[in-house]
């Protein structure tokens, strides 16, 4: 009877948290969140692909093929539009909200099975009530589905390792892992970090129980199957553009398009904040760039600052970067890097990553980007500070979970975060959304931080003993 009451209580708790999580996501859908221009890009790709059979953008002479975005999200949108009607983004958002709730349950199930029931409840609460993942479920961008891929990878890897330990069939959990890794790659080019981290982790944990040979076979099989969907995409790109391009290009450009690499390199010498992205990087090619929005660290006083002002003034004449002007930006960058190599290769990347992790996640909400100017918008600034506190809380709890050695699958999880941070440090345009894919790891880490049960310690000891050689 006691077990029945416990099960009934647990089901009610899950149902209550699911209802609260759904209500939060429906609230964001109903009231709307800020939509990125990428949403329009993905919708146009989906329409042209499904209606005209061309993966590209409409131009003056027809539809021009493109490879600047991977086909995963346009495929998802195209399927939804085919069933529910063209442009039904509200349906897309509702489906993403439901999938996001599934992601929350996957983290809950992983935590309760690998650590303790209490860890599961905490992880589920953190996931269901997270305003950031809930907000992205209400947007027309890839982040929500990418977050779900990370959660599915975590859950499937845990199931796969349990099957290996129990000498059971690994077919179903392997299928779940492959689906997670393949979808992550098809959604975003940085999705390749997921198989890199999880195939490594799968080998590490499986070799203690199954031996190095079988562990290697499992890891290689998962990786190979995950990248197979890229084969037709790569063939298509070669046939259309005559280039080998399995992923979307770093600068989202077609092969014949000019890329202002000098300008991007110059940005990397000083850009560390999301504000720099909005006031400089996003203006490039369309709007003027004001000297007043460029921080003092961008140049050394004297000839360098004088040349920078002259280059920006030349750009502002037509709001366009020619190859000659780009070369001048590149020369500015090269000279600055020569004088400050440590700043360029270490300090700036670290500060960019810290900004993406710690800055208030206001990009989806109607909050001024200059949130710290409290006298201009006290309510918005208060909300931003509150969001920053919530974000910091997730980070602190997760750090506690990992530093106390309570988090299962720590190797692939930490490796994924590390690889992601290294990649993000190389970007000249920091945006907070680039860290969102790691939030399932924060949920799991936070749940484990507050677990501490004897059951959890026993399971972790078993996991450690099963990963030791011999």
Describe this structure in words.
This protein has 470 residues and is an all-alpha fold. The chain folds into 2 domains: 338 residues, no CATH class; 70 residues, no CATH class. 69% of the residues lie in helices and 2% in strands. The protein has a two-stranded antiparallel ribbon. A hairpin with a 2-residue loop joins β1 and β2. α1 packs across α6, α12 runs parallel beside α15 and α15 crosses α16. The longest helix has 30 residues. The C terminus is likely disordered.
Quick rundown:
The chain has 470 residues and is mainly alpha-helical. It contains 20 helices and two strands. α8 packs across α10 and α9 (193-210) runs antiparallel to α10.
Low-confidence spans: 466-470
Q: What is the domain total for the residues? A: 2
First-last Cα distance: 43 Å
Q: What is the N-to-C order of secondary-structure elements (H for helix, E for strand)?
A: HHEEHHHHHHHHHHHHHHHHHH
Fraction of residues in β-strands: under 5%
Q: How much helicity do the residues have?
A: 55-70%
Mean pLDDT: 92
Structure summary, number of beta strands: 2
Radius of gyration: 24 Å
The DSSP helix count reads 20
Give the class from helix and strand content and strand pairing: mainly alpha
- How does the overall form come out from the CA principal axes? globular
Record the strand order, biggest sheet.
1-2
- Largest beta-sheet characterization: 2 strands, antiparallel
